[in-house]
Design a protein that fits this description.
This protein is about 70% helix and about 0% strand. The chain is built from four helices and no strands. The protein has helices spanning about 5, 10-25, 30-45, 60-80.
């Protein structure tokens, strides 16, 4: 059963909060290590592999995430205005 507080939070936001806790609790882990840890079970269950994430720097992941989010926002904005 979901906790009352938990049910009020969007699952995407909750996932990011959990990852933030992981970053604080595991300061020696890069962002790639955190993402690898978070996604490896899902990848394995689906026949995939996310090991490459461990080799990507935190800075490169941040740049990629930032650019991808900006691209998606722009695409959605263009779709909305079309």
């Amino acid at each position: 059963m979901r906790s009352p507080v938990r049910s009020k939070i969007d699952d995407r936001i909750h996932a990011l909060i959990v990852m933030e806790v992981g970053c604080r609790e595991l300061p020696e882990y890069s962002l790639g290590d955190i993402l690898y840890s978070a996604l490896r079970r899902v990848a394995r269950a689906n026949g995939g592999n996310v090991r490459f994430l461990r080799d990507v720097s935190t800075r490169d992941l941040l740049r990629s995430i930032d650019q991808s989010i900006n691209d998606e926002i722009e695409l959605n904005s263009n779709d909305y205005n079309a």
